[in-house]
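Hi there,

I know you've been waiting on this one. I reran it after we fixed the sequence typo, so this is the corrected version. Both the input and the resulting structure follow.
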Amino acid sequence: MGRGPNRYYVEIHPEALRGFVELVDHPWVRGVAEAVLGPDYQIVEVGFDVPGPGAMNQPWHRDFPMPPETRDEHRLTSLAFNVPLVDTEPNMGPFEIALGTQWDRGEDFEHGMFRTGRCTDATRSVRCAGFRSWATSRPARR
């Protein structure tokens, strides 16, 4: 599914990213990952959402379908850390989260990831403004 005009998603090998070890070994990143996932977590992907001038908000989505452990046991098995690589302005569709929606079963989501139709009032009521800090963390589903 497209991410909208002037917005791109890029995945690279971690060893190709200068500063990768410093980023993933940062006390905040390590602390959040261990607190949520336990000491044996693994990093499985490095990807970048790159909004250019005029980019629009992305469709409300999860990063991948809900794993059975989350659906059946209410246990998170993954996190996505979002580290902006460019200054983000409101007209670029900044990162937003909708608190608590990581527990939505999503059985009616397209491909298990994309909510069909419009957001509900309940979703809007938990939506937070865009984050501009150096990093944010969320379960890997919005």
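Quick highlight: The beta strands are 7-12, 46-51, 79-82, 136-139.

Best,
R. S.
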